[in-house]
Each structure stands twice: as C-alpha cells, then as structure tokens.
Design brief:
The protein is globular, with a radius of gyration of 22 Å. It has an 18-stranded antiparallel β-barrel. A two-stranded antiparallel ribbon has the order 20-21. The protein has four helices and 22 strands. It has helices at residues 3-23, 51-54, 92-100, 314-321, and strands at residues 34-45, 59-71, 74-75, 78-91, 114-120, 123-137, 141-148, 180-188, 194-202, 211-225, 228-237, 240-251, 254-264, 270-284, 287-297, 331-342, 345-354, 360-371, 374-384, 394-395, 403-404, 408-417.
Length: 418
C-alpha cells in the first residue's frame, strides 16, 4: 500500500467516526483539543563487539520530537476519543533501525492508520491515529468500539497478564500506551466486581486480511473471594489459549500481588509464567517514598545455560517480535524506589537482575515539574554482565563473535502539555 493510500485511509477512518459521533448529538459542552509535545535527546553507548557497533552505530545520539493531539467530547451516554500522534527522530538510530530490518516493525492492527512521511539518511518520521473509539456507557455497562488502550495485570516491571502492547521494562515514556483495534464490553456489578469481554481482530501481517490465528478474544473478571481481590482471565490469543489468575492483598502497611499465567500452545505444550510483587509506602529522611520488589518467572524463557539468538525457542521469538515479551531468560528479580525529594521533584533507581545468568540492568530516573504544564525527565540505563548473558550480550550464533546487547543510555525529555 502506498503512502498516499495509507494517509487517505487514516483520514477517512477519523472522519467516519467523527461524523458518526456528531450524528448522535451535540456534545454537552464544547470540548477543546488538548495534547502534549515532547522533545527528547538520547545518547547510547554500545559495546565494541555488539551488533550495533557492527552496523556502524556503536556510540550514537538521537534527537526526537513527539506530538500528540487529543479530542474527547462526550454527551449524554456517548463519548468519542481521537488521538493523533506524530513523531520524528534524527540520528544514527534511524540507520540502525533500517539495518535491523522488519523485526523493528510495529505489531499489526486491523486497520492501517499509520504513514511514514520521512525515511532518509539520519531522519525518520511517521504519524498515525492512536485512538479512534466510540463509547456508550451506563451505570452498569460500557461498550467501546475502535482503537483504544487496555491494560491488565498488576505487574510493576514485568507484565505477563497484559497481552496488548505492554510497556517494556526499559520504556522511558509510559504516559500513553499504543492503541489496539478492538470491541470492548464491560459489565459492572453492585458488589464491586466487573467482567470485561474483548475481541481484537488482526491480520497476520500488514496488508493482509484478519485471521483467527492472529486475532484475540478474552474474558477478564475482577471479583472478591474469601476477602481477597482476585482477577481471572481466559483468552484465545494468536492461536494459543491463555489462562490467568491473580490475587492481591495487604501485609502490614504493604500491598502484595500474585499472578500465575499458563499458556497452552496451539502446537502442543504448556508454558507457565508468573509474578509476585510487594510495594510499601514509607517515610525516608522525612520524605515520602515508595519501595517495591518483584519476582518474575518467564515460562517462555530459554532453559539452556549457554545459548545464542539463533537458538531461541520459536514461541519466545514470536512474543519478542510482536512486543508481548522483552526478556529471554526465565527468572528475574527487580527492586526499586521512588523518593519525593520535594513536591516538584521525584527520583529513584530500579534494578533488574537476571537470576539465571547473573547479569544486571540498572535504571535511574528523575522527574521535575518546571511549571503547571511543563515537565523535565532525566534518566540513565546501564547494562552489566559478561558475554553470553542477557544484559552483557548474546551471540548471534554459536560461533559468532558479534553480540546482541542493550547499550548504556542517557536521556533527557522535556514535555509540554496544553
């Protein structure tokens, strides 16, 4: 599909739902367009034997800009949401993404509402409709059709129950989750329970027709059993059956969560993932702080002690490529804290340890409010580990001397809201 055809489809889809929204009646009040502008500078430093270095991007700097416009009018029991998102990046990462090929492509959605307007040299840019949904709601029922965001599970760093565009543990911007084309129905009950039903039609690749093997359907229940808040999930996702159960509660002044997520593969076999976390609000040095720890078991992770990228299990590669998983081993422990240094500044570190190979990823970030609608975010990420470890670098093949490893990063973001 050409860029002009994609842009026309994007414009037509937005116009069609906007026209439908207007036909249902005028909003109760004029809803202005809001949004966010973000400018980010990122410096990355890869190892000399890394794939990044082999592709000519060992040490690199990238300047990126992101614009999001949001319009969300409502009237009576109806509401409408449309988000337009445009982003551009200038730096070596543009060349690196091209060299890496289709593995960096975004997950397929039912309707292609994205278009690339620049892709040459050090410059890349694209725009898309990231939300496009019409909602009907009553006190007991919510029905939403269109592109929307949905998050399930109680993970703090890892999110095995979140099947739809989960954030990576190293994501530097988690304010807006990428939208997914779906039909969503929620039923609320008087005791505080609720059930959610969704259907997510997808094509197996861009430009193809939707298929059952690439699509998802799920039922998700929140309810209280024996005084404990529980979560239950049953889904058919990309041809596999996924079940999950979650329980949370209090322990002293802390809050804990448990999740068990078995996946029954279409080709046979079962992979069981899970997590356990605990978080606690405290006062440190007379300042408010939140501390947490989380254990994650990745049922799809590689079992071998020494392995390479070429030998990763196919079911793991599938989930890595479509952005459902971000880790290659089986057992992880993460811990961190957020400290309110003052009412305008929050900062804190996070440590992610791979318990199978001993490698570690250190993360730190700080957020400072410069004004009512202006925020500055600074952060750093440092992988530590030897060869043949996840954060130190995995060889491309058994005899390869080129390693796939995350680079160290420094980043600075300036966000303006309007």
């Amino acid at each position: 599909m050409s860029g002009g055809e994609r842009t026309s489809r994007l414009e037509l889809a937005a116009a069609a739902l906007a026209a439908l929204a207007l036909c249902l009646g005028s909003p109760a009040r004029a809803e202005p367009i809001h949004g966010r502008i973000e400018v980010q500078d990122t410096a990355a430093f890869a190892r000399e034997d890394s794939l990044d270095a082999a592709l000519g991007a060992r040490n690199r700097n990238d300047l990126a800009a992101d614009l999001r416009l949001t319009w969300e009018p409502s009237w009576d029991r109806w509401s409408f949401s449309v988000h337009y998102n445009a982003s551009a990046s200038y730096g070596d990462s543009a060349r690196l993404a091209r060299a890496r090929g289709p593995l960096t492509a975004p997950p397929a959605t039912l309707v292609d509402l994205e278009d690339t307007f620049a892709d040459d040299g050090h410059l890349t840019g694209s725009h898309r409709i990231d939300r496009l949904a019409l909602t009907y709601s009553t006190a007991e029922t919510v029905v939403r059709v269109g592109r929307q965001a949905l998050t399930w599970g109680s993970g703090l760093v890892f999110r095995p129950m979140d099947l739809f565009n989960p954030f990576s543990p190293t994501a530097t911007d988690t304010e807006y989750k990428p939208g997914v084309d779906m039909i969503y129905v929620q039923r609320l009950f008087a005791d505080g329970s609720d059930v959610q039903l969704i259907v997510v039609p997808r094509p197996p690749r861009r430009g193809a027709r939707a298929s059952s093997d690439a699509s998802s359907a799920a039922a998700h229940l929140h309810t209280t059993i024996a005084g404990r808040r529980t979560t239950w999930l049953l889904a058919r996702d990309h041809g596999d059956w996924v079940a999950a159960v979650g329980v949370n509660g209090a322990l002293g002044g802390a809050t804990w969560n448990l999740e068990v997520v078995p996946t029954f593969l279409d080709g046979g076999g079962t992979r069981v993932s899970g997590l356990a976390n605990i978080s606690y609000s405290a006062t440190l040095m007379r300042r408010n702080a939140t501390l947490f720890a989380e254990y994650f078991h990745n049922g799809f992770g590689a079992r071998e002690r020494n392995f390479d990228v070429a030998s990763l299990p196919p079911e793991l590669l599938d989930r890595l490529s479509r952005g459902q998983l971000f880790s290659t081993r089986r057992n992880y422990l993460s811990a961190g804290m957020t400290l309110e240094v003052n009412p305008l500044l929050n900062a804190g570190p996070t440590v992610i340890a791979n318990l199978d190979d001993g490698s570690v990823l250190l993360l730190a970030s700080a957020t400072v409010s410069l004004g009512d609608n202006l925020t500055l975010v600074a952060g750093a990420q440092a992988p530590i580990g030897g060869h043949r470890t996840e954060f130190g670098g995995l060889p491309l093949a058994p005899a390869s001397q080129t390693f796939v490893a995350p680079p160290a990063r420094l980043y600075l973001q300036l966000r303006r809201y309007f």
